[in-house]
Amino acid sequence: MLTTLSIKNYALIEDIKIDLQEGFTIITGETGAGKSIMLGALSLLLGKRADYSAIRDNEKKCVIEGTFNVSAYQLQPLFTSEDLDYEEQTIIRREILPSGKSRAFVNDTPANLNSLQALGEHLLDIHSQHETQSLGDNDYQFMVVDVLAKNAAHLKKYRKSLLEYKAFQKELEVLKEAQAQATKEYDYNLFLLNEIRSAKLEDGMQEELEERYEELSNVEELKEQLGAAVNSIQQEEIGTVNTLKEAKNSLQKISLISASYQQLFERLQSVFIELDDIAVELENALEKVEANPEELEQVNARLQLLYNLQKKHMVSTVSELKEIEKELSEKVAVSENAEEEIAKAEKNISAKKKELEELAKVLHDNRKAVIPEFIKKIETILADLGMPNANLKIQLERQQEVYTNGQDKLSWLLAANKGGSFNEMKKAASGGEMSRIMLAVKSILATYSNLPTIIFDEIDTGVSGDIAQKMAGILQKMGNVMQVIAITHLPQIAGKGASHFKIYKEDAVNSTITNIKELKGEDRIQELAMMLGGNNMSESAVAHAKALLN
User: Fold this and answer.
1) 543 three-class SS
2) SS3 of residue 174 by DSSP
3) Using one digit for the tens of pLDDT, what is the confidence trace for 55-95?
4) Domains in the chain and their CATH numbers?
5) What's the predicted TM-score (pTM) here?
6) Are the CB atoms for 519 and 527 separated by under 8 Å?
7) Smaller CB count within 10 Å for the chain: N or C?
């Protein structure tokens, strides 16, 4: 529950602090006194985005701080999941700096707006005047029924499954689009792929082919030069081998004279052996050189195929061609394997749809089970609130389609008067009747939810007299199970509060400020009397005020 609220430098508020109690609390004040300002400040604690224009003094920061007693609400797991420090007396603070930057803290730990919103859902419900109209909103109607049906865990599981179902549908859509595109390009891609495959690409093949082509194209030149080299080395009289042999023999004769001559002889011996080996290889090479027009034609054809492919695909190496071959192979495979992939995706969708339908049936059955008792309670409360002939009908129909909250179509229909026909809630009820129905719904929800605090902003709109008195009784009863704060203009409701605060404007130096004070004793009697009879309080108004308090 909210135990303390402090607001500084916000709109017309300079600096206020109020301590709140359990049970039913009343807030009154003239129109424009600043009640909506206080609600706006509370909304900031619940994660609403900050508005820089709300700062009263642009040279100071705006600070809004609320203390919440959360000891009885098992919120430790939520604090852990949001990476926040848990305290039984949790303090939430929002700051709007003069620079326009906004900061949030939970128990002095920096927090983001998402964390505030997550906490706020478990701490406080602000029922604004316009929210009454949400009774006609289908999402709100589902929310009410699901709270009564205790469907929260089932809905979470269902929505997780629904996300997976939609992901499978998206995958199928992508596969079909890819298949359609691949089918258009399949024949052309297959032709290109077979054309590249015909080249039998291997790393280094282009260099080998080009080298072989040069050899086959220069047979006569090779024979002539290799033959000349062999003759130069092995010619009988003046050949290099013969000359080197004579030099080697000369050195051998003096090799024993000193180690240096021996080294020269050994080096010359090595040269002689190497040269002799070269001569043998030259002779072998010469023997292998022969004209082969047929092989030359084959090598040339393979090279031309390579060159043509490189030009066609605008690349210059075999490795780049191999990469293109891989890409084409993948594109062709997409088309060839598409049916199998599509069949797999459709199977996943079918299985997930079946799972969704089973989960949706659980939601449907739970809703169906609680609706009759809910209708009975609503009609009983409405009878006490001056709508004895009101009849509520809730239609729940199972559909084939899957929606975000199951497979149900839900309709709340109302016949407000005896003999009247059923119609949509927003068409069948007046403003005052809508307020009474909303109060009835909220009072029932209060017994199911574990929410600490609810704030009603003029839930009594459109009602008066005895009906207001009965509404006050319901609010007071709600205050027995949770903290209820009501902003009201009706003395019948204001008199029921266990505590009473008044918001008012007062003139300060060169400005007007909003302030708040707790009313007790005679001050409270005077406030109720003014609400009953205006500024000119009569004795009867004072007596009536005392009667309301008693």
Assistant:
1) helix
2) helix
3) 888 889 999 999 999 998 889 999 999 999 999 999 999 99
4) 1-127+451-519 (3.40.50.300), 177-338 (no CATH)
5) 0.67
6) yes
7) C
